[in-house]
Specification:
By secondary structure, the protein is mainly β. The protein is about 10% helix and about 35% strand. The chain contains three helices and eleven strands, in the order ββββαβαβββαβββ. It is globular and about 50 Å long.
């Protein structure tokens, strides 16, 4: 199956991403190709695999004992130079997830980085986070992300930034009914708007 999706038929979206814990600060606008589903086995701490598609039944992943995270695949300049969108899995209609809204506002933990080695025919990978076992590794700083992209791309390794979304099920209730983030319980975020 072709690993590319035609530029002319894609329905890209603009999105404004805000870092979790930043209040209304540090909001950045990006061009989104579509939803990215990150999957890894529940047992073990190996890398996550990435599929840029919205039609994977998430309940089937849970039944198979796999963790999954919804994220958003970010466009990169090479997508426009080639006039094609390279995707990390099967082709997807970029922007079909989101109800046709031209501007999406999302809270994110940061930017994960999907990568694939030059000789690989498998899915793109995202490294696991060293400190939070249930999350992929991510960067809070765009400068750090760009440094890593530059390093990998110089070695012929294909990359794709992925906005790691904050979800409602990332929160638990305390004794007073307040929402506490299960991964970062000491971090309060009054401006948080978790994704569905």
């Amino acid at each position: 199956m072709d690993r590319h999706h035609d530029f002319d038929s894609a329905h890209i979206q603009q999105a404004r991403f805000r870092l979790f814990g930043s209040g209304q600060r540090l909001s950045r606008r990006s061009i989104v190709l579509g939803p990215a589903i990150l999957v890894r086995p529940a047992a073990g701490r190996g890398p996550w695999t990435v599929s840029i598609s919205e039609d994977i039944p998430l309940d089937s992943l849970a039944r198979r004992g796999e963790h999954h995270r919804m994220a958003a695949a970010i466009a990169v300049p090479a997508d426009f130079r080639r006039r094609r969108f390279a995707v990390a899995g099967r082709p997807a209609t970029a922007g079909s997830h989101g109800g046709g809204r031209p501007n999406l506002h999302r809270t994110i933990y940061g930017w994960a980085l999907a990568y694939r080695f030059p000789d690989s025919t498998g899915p793109a990978l995202v490294d696991p986070d060293d400190d939070v076992p249930d999350l992929p590794a991510f960067y809070e700083s765009p400068a750090e992300l760009i440094d890593r992209v530059t390093y990998l791309e110089a070695r012929g390794i294909e990359t794709r930034p992925i906005a790691l979304l904050v979800h409602e099920n990332d929160f638990i209730r305390d004794a007073r009914g307040g929402a506490i983030n299960r991964y970062f319980p000491s971090l309060t975020d009054p401006g948080s708007n978790p994704s569905d």
